[in-house]
Amino acid sequence: VKQKGRDGWHFFNDSLEQKVRQRLSVTQGLRLAIERNELSPRFQPIVCADSGRIVGAELLLRWFPQDGEISPAIFIPIAEMTGAIVALGLWVFRQACLAESAWRQRWRDSAPSYISVNVSARQLNEESLADDFSRILRETGADPRRILLEITETSLMADIDTNLRILRRLADLGMRVAVDDFGTGYSSLAQLTRLPVNVLKIDRAFVDGIDTQSENRAVNRAIVGLARALGLKLVAEGVENIEQLLELRALGCDYVQGYLFHRPLDEQSFIGRFSRELEE
Ligand code: C2E
Ligand code: CA
Ligand code: CA
Ligand code: CA
What we know:
By secondary structure, this protein is α/β, with parallel strands linked by helices. The chain contains twelve helices and ten strands.
């Protein structure tokens, strides 16, 4: 039984049968989602922690099948399981490249510094990934130095030798790499220094209690220290209130992303928001 809620379709009663049925309908629906034009990118601004000005944006995928919306938290894991993420991931990467190219033509030197795009572990296992990305960069005219690939800590560390090889090829194309959801996995310093990584993204779970829970503050302080030692930029995600911002600023976090500043926006709204900021 499904029911339409605030965030789209919710599936109640997670009996095994229902889970199987949900997975099946999502799998079948996703297969046609691209050609039916049901997918749409959102761009969540990433801002400078000190000035609050937009420095970049993260592309977040949205799916609107027929009359509803299904959250990426539901369909991305299913797409990863079935392998559909490979085709979806290429579509997403192309959208990021198209936006990068269009924004740079529109705003020239004042354009946002980068667009970040999520890449899942399953995509890294695809032998053709670097060639596909390279072709899409060429076709869209995007500047690879302005594309940041976000890969979760857990998937990076899962198969570090294979990933190292793939990441080197992606880095050779000129793109930069961020460790997403940092703090939720287990990377050792030794592993981190081996990978061509430029940015750490602190997971929302740690930003959440930063203003009230001293353990979270300690974790964040450790992450900031690690980033400094390795010369990496730091982005904190899920910043919802001013207390969190002040704390992150005091710790020396470079960039922040969260509802306190901007929600994920459709491209027109992003363009409006950024244009207005440039006029200020
Ligand atoms: P993520 O990469 O950690 O993305 C951040 C999530 O936090 C996004 O959820 C974003 O909308 C949400 N968020 C941002 N600021 C705030 C805030 O202040 N408060 C709260 N509560 N949430 C905030 P979203 O868009 O629902 O995406 C969920 C996850 O789905 C993403 O987590 C990412 O793992 C995955 N995902 C989304 N789009 C893609 C994609 O194109 N490819 C892949 N592989 N995964 C994607
Ligand atoms: Ca991300
Ligand atoms: Ca994240
Ligand atoms: Ca996260």
